[in-house]
């Protein structure tokens, strides 16, 4: 059965498949979908660019790869701009710049260029990189998941470094929804575009097809990896190692759209090059921000907010620290989300 499914997926991808504490259950369906859904489809809606067949594939598997969606020219502009940000020639308000844990631990003086940077995050105020998030080629597909009124947040350019021997270039298996207080879950989608050829040698994405249908956000935490784990790279704790995985080999410009409950991660980069990808998380503009206090998500949201406060050098006594988790989540969502298509509807909370 599982073998048949993997074969169907492989045909679609045209590549070979490779082989505690008590917490309150977290609602993933709360928040009203302002987009009508049909009996046949739950995870996609009418109106976007996905064909009937493509919708069926996504419903079943929780991801879909669209080949050759973004041109080389556009990706080269994003790459050059990223390099300029890393060299300090461009300053982007609100941007988080992350370094691999092995570099952080080494305490060595690092070159001021992209070789020291693993990821930049939250580029919502960078007009060049936001060209990707607002690209009509991307948005025509996002409409099939989020409906006509679309916002983006949690934007990233990932620069997976050659593994320094610590295996810290891996990204543990996780669910993106663990980090998001937005509902409804099924109107959230990630777009992830390869900025060069990606395969297992440079740490392509790996997904567990169909895992989105389980519907729950699992407990996450830092894996016990000898060589250390990057900041905020939480992984699923109770994971069955035997679950079939699919490695998404992609060419430059290919884009995968995936559901936020889909279990995914990425392997070690065994090459000498930096593996680049650009991505954004899209959701229905009038999404609801929920209170995650006491749920499996609390740890992630608290850590994310702490990182943002630290980055803005707002000390422990700053009034923000006294806000409720829910108010913080609303504030940070408002600060990072940008409406990219349709009506600028208010966030619900
Ligand atoms: O690009 C990667 O290596 C993994 C990205 C990812 O899963 C994430 O940042 O949530």
TrEMBL record:
GO biological process, one term: fatty acid alpha-oxidation
MF annotations from Gene Ontology: L-ascorbic acid binding; metal ion binding; phytanoyl-CoA dioxygenase activity
Cofactor(s), names only, from the UniProt record: L-ascorbate; Fe cation; ATP
Pfam families, A to Z: PhyH
Keyword entries, A-Z: Dioxygenase, Iron, Metal-binding, Oxidoreductase, Vitamin C
An example Gene Ontology CC term for this record: peroxisome
Pathway: Lipid metabolism; fatty acid metabolism
Name of this chain's protein: Phytanoyl-CoA dioxygenase, peroxisomal
Organism: Branchiostoma belcheri
Gene behind the chain: LOC109477446
């Amino acid at each position: 059965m599982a073998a048949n499914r993997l074969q169907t997926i492989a045909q679609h991808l045209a590549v070979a498949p490779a082989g505690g504490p008590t917490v309150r259950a977290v609602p993933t369906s709360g928040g009203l979908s302002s987009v009508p859904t049909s009996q046949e489809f739950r995870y996609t809606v009418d109106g976007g660019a996905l064909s009937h067949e493509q919708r069926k594939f996504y419903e079943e598997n929780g991801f879909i790869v669209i080949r050759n969606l973004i041109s080389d020219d556009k990706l080269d502009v994003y790459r050059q701009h990223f390099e300029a940000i890393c060299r300090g020639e461009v300053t982007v308000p609100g941007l988080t710049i992350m370094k691999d844990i092995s570099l952080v631990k080494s305490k060595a003086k690092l070159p001021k260029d992209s070789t020291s940077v693993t990821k930049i995050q939250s580029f919502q105020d960078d007009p060049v990189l936001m060209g990707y998030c607002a690209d009509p080629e991307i948005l025509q597909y996002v409409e099939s998941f989020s409906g006509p009124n679309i916002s983006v947040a949690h934007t990233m350019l990932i620069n997976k470094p050659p593994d320094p021997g610590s295996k810290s270039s891996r990204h543990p298996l996780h669910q993106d929804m663990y980090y998001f207080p937005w509902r409804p879950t099924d109107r959230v989608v990630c777009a992830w575009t390869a900025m060069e050829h990606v395969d297992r040698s440079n740490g392509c994405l790996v997904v567990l097809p169909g895992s989105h249908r389980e519907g729950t956000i699992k407990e996450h935490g830092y894996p016990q990896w000898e060589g250390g784990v990057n900041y905020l790279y939480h992984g699923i704790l109770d994971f069955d190692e035997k679950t079939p995985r699919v490695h998404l080999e992609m060419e430059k410009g290919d884009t995968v759209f995936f559901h936020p409950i889909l279990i995914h991660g990425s392997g070690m980069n065994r090459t000498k090059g930096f593996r680049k990808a650009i991505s954004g998380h899209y959701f229905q503009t009038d999404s609801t921000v929920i209170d995650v206090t006491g749920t499996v998500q609390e740890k992630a949201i608290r850590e994310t907010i702490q990182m943002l406060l630290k980055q803005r050098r707002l000390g422990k006594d700053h009034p923000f620290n006294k806000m409720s988790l829910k108010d913080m989540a609303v504030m940070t969502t408002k600060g990072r989300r940008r409406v990219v298509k349709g009506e600028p509807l208010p966030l619900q909370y």
